Structure to design on (237 residues):
């Protein structure tokens, strides 16, 4: 249980007409476990939608850039140090300290990155186009292909996200139920090594076909792999 990190709800398809009594099923549950307490974690970011930008960055500057403002002080008083000195003759409010040292605040102000309210309250300007996007949450919408080449083929963007976040180039990705090889293709395109296993010959053929169609580029080389087949034989008798 200590290795469990998240259960992720994945919207896998559009609503369908079910004849049975009950709610329609449009989701999968992805269970995220890590082997150690320090797994590889490349923080993924999701682009802001136009609606997010409108809500989170409600102001527009003269150049038309969307922005918001945030306080330049944070809770907690510091006795000494660079974050409790006067900035433009002003001390941080009681019980708070400046979020950074006064030299940086002055530089921000010279760069036009401090917005002063009519009552003389300074706030830091944060531009939408300088943010990397929002944190990825635990409800994902990655619908599977409508016309799959393999009956249970998964959305490749879903696998790209998982592989990019939880492995590095050169890592080994294992899919022990690889089906048509969607995970292996994602791993190949993201410069990971991979191992795929499936008991179905049809799956192995589909995987080979998918890997042969991996686009080569400056960053992605053609897959090099070999087939290994291991048979467990019962030698009694
Ligand atoms: C849900 S599919 C995987 C689909 C895959 N993610 C894709 O995108 O194409 C599950 C696969 O597991 C394989 N499988 C089932 N039991 C297995 C076993 N005991 N050992 C190896 N493969 C198995 C099936 O042949 C099937 O291809």
């Amino acid at each position: 249980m200590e290795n469990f990190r998240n259960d992720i709800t994945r919207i896998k398809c559009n609503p369908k007409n079910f004849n049975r009594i009950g709610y329609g099923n449009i989701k999968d549950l992805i269970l995220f476990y890590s082997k150690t307490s320090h797994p590889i974690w490349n923080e993924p970011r999701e682009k802001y939608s136009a609606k997010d930008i409108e809500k989170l960055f409600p102001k527009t500057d003269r150049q038309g850039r969307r922005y918001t403002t945030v306080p330049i002080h944070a809770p907690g008083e510091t006795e000494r140090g660079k974050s409790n000195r006067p900035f433009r003759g002003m001390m941080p409010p009681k019980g708070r300290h400046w979020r950074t040292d006064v030299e940086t605040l002055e530089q921000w102000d010279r760069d036009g990155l401090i917005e002063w309210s009519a009552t003389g309250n300074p706030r830091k300007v944060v531009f939408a186009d300088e943010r990397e996007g929002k944190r990825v949450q635990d409800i994902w919408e990655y619908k599977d292909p409508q016309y799959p080449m393999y009956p249970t083929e998964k959305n490749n963007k879903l696998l790209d996200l998982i592989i990019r976040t939880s492995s590095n180039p050169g890592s080994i990705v294992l899919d022990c139920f690889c089906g048509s090889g969607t995970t292996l293709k994602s791993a190949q395109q993201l410069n990971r090594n991979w191992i795929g296993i499936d008991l179905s010959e049809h799956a192995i053929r589909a995987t080979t076909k998918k890997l042969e169609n991996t686009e080569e580029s400056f960053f992605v080389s053609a897959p090099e792999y070999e087939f290994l087949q291991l048979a467990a034989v019962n030698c009694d008798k």
Observations:
- The radius of gyration is 26 Å.
- The helical segments are 50-56, 102-110, 156-166, 182-189, 201-212.
- Residues 201-212 form the longest helix (12 residues).
